Each structure stands twice: as C-alpha cells, then as structure tokens.
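Priority: medium. Attachment 1 of 2:
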C-alpha cells in the first residue's frame, strides 16, 4: 500500500498551493485512493476519497476543498452532488463523460486505469468533468491521452516500470507529459512526488 506526499503548485508561476498526504491500494473490486490536503502553512485544506471499479470507472468520489464538497459516481455518464460551505444548498449535475478530474494526482492514475493504453496504440480521446479549485466548480473537458513510452528502471526493490503519457487539451491544443509508475504519479505539471514510503502497486 503506497503512502507518501505530493506537493502541489501553480504550474505557471510555481506558487506552492498545498501538500497532499496520500495512501492508495488495489483491492478485489478495483483501486482506492484517500488523501488529506494541507496548506503550505499546515492548515487543513481538503480531502480526496476516490474508489474505482475493476474497469477503472469511478464508483465513489468524495472531494472536499475550502468547505465545498462534491460526491459523485459513474451513473449515466458521471453524476455528482455539490454542496456549498453552509450545507444549505446542494446542486446536482450530470454529464455524458467517462470520469472526473481535478488537481489531485489520483485523477491522473484513474484515467490510466480507465483507458488501459499500450505504447503501440494511437491516442485516445476522453471526456472528463473537471472539479476546479477552490470551489470545486464542475467543467466538462475533452482530452487526448497517448502512452508514448514504457520503460523499466532498476531499483533496490526490483524493476520499476514507468509509463510516459502525452496529454493534450483538445480545446487549446496544449500538451504536457505525465509519468506514472503503477498507482503513483512521479511527475506531472503542478505536482511533485516528495516522499514515498513503499513502492507503487503493480496492477495485473
């Protein structure tokens, strides 16, 4: 069960935004990721609880940020309920999308579990509902994912397979790289893996 810490920063000016303390593991029904976020000053900033089924679909998402909360799942596309900080107003939403995305590295791993790309395959288009900080506002985005390279690196715990993905935002054409080993994101825009207590999980 990998445990560790990511640092999140603004991908443009590198302003520190938060630290995400996480643990994740595959299970009999899929994969689960839980984390708590703190500000650079150490204050509570939010939390993530994401569970995927064996096909990579989000069967449960609970996301908190700045007292806003979203609960969602893959139902008729994806469906969610967003609650404001007072807890008085809740709005429901639904989109013909494949999954959710956001600032947490969990969402990057989730997309790779959903798409199951191979290095020889062409780029695959995916529609996601992005829950954007600081108020978890939902926005539908279209991306293209391609697995450019799969490389094994020798470590003290045996070979570590690292996948390099190219992600393209289809509305702007902007591209960026994402490096993932198992269920841990090694590098991506806006985040760095600062600490990892145990090796990434190996998916069958």
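Attachment 2 of 2:
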């Amino acid at each position: 069960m990998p445990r560790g810490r990511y640092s999140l920063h603004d991908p443009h000016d590198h302003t520190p935004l938060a630290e995400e303390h996480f643990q994740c593991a595959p299970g009999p029904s899929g994969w689960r990721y839980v984390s708590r976020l703190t500000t650079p000053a150490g204050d509570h900033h939010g939390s993530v609880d994401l569970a995927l089924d064996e096909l990579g679909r989000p069967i449960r998402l609970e996301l908190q940020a700045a007292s806003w909360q979203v609960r969602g799942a893959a139902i008729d596309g994806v469906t969610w309920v967003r609650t404001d900080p007072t807890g008085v107003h809740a709005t429901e939403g639904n989109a013909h999308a494949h999954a959710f995305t956001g600032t947490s590295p969990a969402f990057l791993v989730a997309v790779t579990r959903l798409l199951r790309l191979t290095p020889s395959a062409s780029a695959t288009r995916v529609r996601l509902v992005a829950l954007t900080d600081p108020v978890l506002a939902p926005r539908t985005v279209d991306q293209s994912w391609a697995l450019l390279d799969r490389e094994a690196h020798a470590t003290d715990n045996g070979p570590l397979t690292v996948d390099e993905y190219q992600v393209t935002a289809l509305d702007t054409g902007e591209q960026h790289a994402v490096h993932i080993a198992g269920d841990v994101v090694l590098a991506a825009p806006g985040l760095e893996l600062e600490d990892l207590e145990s090796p990434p999980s190996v998916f069958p």
